[in-house]
Amino acid sequence: MTDDFKSAMRRASEFVRKGNPADATKMIQAALAKGGVSGPSTPQTPDATAFGTAKIGRSLRETLARLGTLSRSRMPAADVTEPPLPQGARFDGDTFACAQGSRDYRTYIPDLSGAPAKGLIMMLHGCKQSPVDFAKGTGMNALADRHGLIVVYPAQSRRANMQSCWNWFGPADQMRDAGEPAILAGLAQKMQRDHAIPHGRSFVAGLSAGAAMAVILGQTYTDVFSGVGAHSGLPYKAAHNARSAFAAMGSGGPDAQKARPIPTIVFHGDADSTVHPANGHHIAGAAATGPQVQEDGNAGKRSFTRSSTLSPHGHPVMEHWTIAGLGHAWSGGHSAGSYTDPDGPDASAEMVRFFLDLPMKSA
User: Fold this and answer.
1) What is the pTM for the complete model shown?
2) How far apart are CA 293 and CA 298, in angstroms?
């Protein structure tokens, strides 16, 4: 990579941090064009490899990930040492493969003492994270012990995205039976079979790019997932190329008016300078199917506002938590993981409570 290209990337990063995604995109495109690499284009095939690799340094897709979702925060390197396991519990590793590709994954299986699992949660990490890091930061394994849940943590491939971001902004990864959604839904179906998960008891949650992909899965695979947890994420089809992705992250994606209502719980910090809080409002708006009730409260050292939409039977079908002073980090998370904030309400516990309060579907 030339010094001029590196300089352009640094200047683009400054534009992003200052909330000017349009100029950042122009800077990237100009730098790539100068080096003989063309700008963004729409892939002609749903295969996840259609974006290819750039001739200089990295593709525009990867450059977006480098400058995007989590790169504005300067966080210490994640501790990837294995978490301690309770007696009888397992944290297995394996690889899932299908026609659309393959991904490694970890599965947390608590000691169920012969009882059936009560549900499945797929947890999608954010950029620069790993399954182990995400498990430690969210504390989801301890909740799995408490509630008898199986938790699966897919790992994004560095070959698919060099910053380990789920590719939420590409059209090839926003549709059913294609790209990353097909791989992740296929993995969830394997978990359902292997662990005899009750019908209607499979859920998906994520952080940042992982939250954006969780929203996509909730829209494209309603027959696989019964609820979505989106922390610091973006709405369905918030972007279709580099320019629109920068714009969505910087000022809020489009209001997802065509999204299918699916039970969704949203967490977003009002001080998030990486993914604009307007995105949380758009995700919640797509999931809300009736009047909302609002309440204010405090948890830990932070205050919050929670807006809820209730079903005719009285259980929430949408909750939107706006956390005062929270940046781009998992609310109530543990410092053993990256991008966590221990001072706010426990997003993991609230997501599990929201998911398990949903009525079971008939087979």
Assistant:
1) 0.81
2) 17
Determine the Cα–Cα distance for residues 163 and 31; give it in Å rounded to an integer: 20
DSSP per-residue letters across 287-345: H--S-EEEEEEEETTEEEEEEEEE-TTS-EEEEEEEETT--SSEET--TTSSSEETTS-
DSSP-derived letter for residue 44 is: S
What number is the average pLDDT over the span 268-275?
97
Q: Which tens digits make up the pLDDT trace of 48-83?
A: 322 222 223 334 454 444 444 443 333 444 556 898
Q: Which amino acid, one-letter code, is at 26? A: K
* Look-up of token digits 């839904």: 185
Residue among 81, 78, 77 at smallest CA distance from 91 = 81
Q: Are 161 and 65 in contact (CB under 8 A)?
A: yes
**What dihedral do alpha carbons 257, 260, 266, 269 form, nearest 10°?**
-30
